[in-house]
Write a structure and sequence with these properties.
It comes from Methanoculleus receptaculi. With 490 residues, the chain is an alpha/beta fold. The chain contains 17 helices and 26 strands.
Length: 490
């Protein structure tokens, strides 16, 4: 059997709940796979066969002790402009569509999603299904293939997840249940309340009142925790701001309008003050500046130039501040971007980059590179020379020509001769402890600060995280696991 986890809203903890359930079942020797029919996210992951899925489903797969695959997230929407998204179907680019046109394909995409779910269920026996956003979006019911239409097709028991931290939890739960279609409401077998601050026992009267109002049992009140697994979307960036202290290494990550894969910096966030800086804010005072990935390099480049970021980078570079570009950020650091209308969706044009690296990027066809990689840092300078071998994955459109500069990594990337400015297509670079140590050791030495190297136990590949076990134990301590286990085949 299987289970659907729906939410009262976005960012209430559905992804974390699914990951916790997957690891809890894995710890009991019960085979399980995660599934999300449709995900809208710019945080994605590349599977072993080169398929692209939401990074949350990859994390959930690792929590379940299995390798991520395309069936776990058959439809991935990657917003790239005003009302336009790239549709990734079963791990491969399908088309760019206007949202109004996307809904014309609802029936076809739902059929693809149900078929993917059925393949997973045949192979694993149990599937934990995650919904998207809030379940009670009444204006979307006839085209909601992530919640209502999927639930109608699968007819599985439903857990409803709510977030007490944002307030209004009674209205969240009661209102959602009241607005659900009757045939879906009858499938709701329990409620999980997330992010409780303090002693859950203090909410016992609230639990009793909710059960009286709704007739649905509350199966757990889960206290707030700081156990981090990769974040699904940019709603979580505001929670990630690290408070700067006088002695902390300060790293600025430019908060691009279409920032993607900001989960690249989660390990850095635990060992330095990583601040997501809005274009137009000063970059003075930072020890390192990172331009992250983006779903639309050209448009975000124009935004940064319009806010004076080009001059800020020039001044920081003259001061010897390391500047690192990842994926789209790497493309921006180059001399030029030649777009045949693929990236911008308009007429062919050439755009001037920031010119900190002598490279040129060309978008000449609707082709995407999606591949897992393991490379040795070969570039010059104190940071790259100390990294050693690292692993990650590439997800990008366009090809970049390196014109005389040394490679940053074997076969990829580019670096200035002193190695203080470099770019790479490798997402996940700073999930490698070796890369984090290399960067922070250099920055600490430059500031005259002590540095304690982090170990492999502190980070590493997405699938190696010990956080999944910690998350499951925390979840199990606060929910009715006996009831929940009854939804699965042992």
């Amino acid at each position: 059997m299987s289970l659907i986890v729906l939410g009262t809203a976005s960012h209430v903890g559905k992804s974390v709940t699914v990951a916790a359930l997957c690891r809890a079942l894995y710890r009991r020797g019960i085979a399980v796979a995660p599934f999300k029919s449709q995900n809208m996210s710019l945080n994605s992951y590349v599977t072993a066969d080169g398929s692209e899925i939401g990074i949350a489903q990859a994390a959930q797969a690792f929590a379940a002790g299995i390798e991520p695959e395309a069936d776990m997230n058959p439809i991935l929407l990657k917003p790239k402009g005003e009302a336009v998204s790239q549709v990734v179907l079963l791990g491969r680019p399908y088309k760019d569509v206007q949202i109004r046109d996307y809904y014309m394909e609802t029936d076809k995409l739902l059929a693809e999603a149900v078929a993917a779910f059925e393949r997973l269920q045949r192979r694993f026996g149990n599937v934990v299904v995650e919904g998207a956003g809030g379940a009670a979006e009444v204006n979307l019911y006839e085209r909601d293939i992530a919640n209502i239409r999927l639930a109608r097709a699968l007819r599985l028991p439903v857990l409803l997840v709510a977030d007490i931290e944002r307030g209004g939890v009674f209205a969240q739960i009661y209102g959602t249940l009241a607005l659900l279609p009757e045939e879906i409401r009858s499938l709701v077998k329990g409620v999980i309340i997330n992010k409780f601050r303090g002693d859950p026992a203090l909410f016992e009267s609230g639990v009793a009142r909710l059960e009286e109002l709704t007739g649905v049992p509350v199966l757990g009140v889960v206290p707030y925790n700081d156990i981090r697994i990769p974040s699904e979307d940019s709603l979580s960036i505001s929670e990630r701001q690290c408070a700067a202290t006088e002695n902390a290494i300060r790293i600025a990550v430019i908060r691009l309008p279409r920032i993607s894969n900001f989960t690249d910096f989660e390990l850095l966030e635990r060992h330095a003050s990583v601040e997501y800086v809005t274009p137009g804010e000063s970059l003075a005072g930072y020890d390192c500046i990172i331009l992250p990935g983006t779903k639309n390099t050209v448009e975000d480049l124009n935004v940064l130039r319009g806010h004076g970021v080009e001059k800020e980078l020039e001044v920081s570079g003259e001061r010897g501040v390391p500047i690192i570009g990842i994926c789209g950020g790497y493309q921006m650091l180059g001399k030029a971007i030649i777009d045949r209308g693929i990236e911008s969706g308009g007429d062919p044009a050439e755009y001037t980059g920031f010119g900190l690296l002598d490279v040129v990027t060309a978008f000449t066809g609707y082709r995407k590179t999606t591949v897992q990689v393991r490379r040795r840092a070969t570039g010059p300078g104190p940071i790259l020379q100390a990294m050693g071998e690292v692993e990650g994955y590439e997800i990008h459109m366009g090809e970049t020509e390196r014109r005389g500069l040394p490679e940053a990594f074997a076969g990829e990337g580019a670096a200035t001769p002193d190695g203080l400015v470099f770019g790479t297509y490798m997402h996940g670079l700073f999930q490698n402890p070796g890369a984090v140590n290399a960067l922070l050791a250099y920055l600490s030495k430059r500031r005259g600060l002590p540095f304690e190297p982090i170990t492999e136990a502190d980070g590493g590949a997405l699938g190696a995280s010990a956080a999944y076990g910690d998350l499951a134990r925390h979840f199990e301590a606060h929910v009715d696991m006996d009831t929940i286990l009854g939804f699965f085949t042992r």
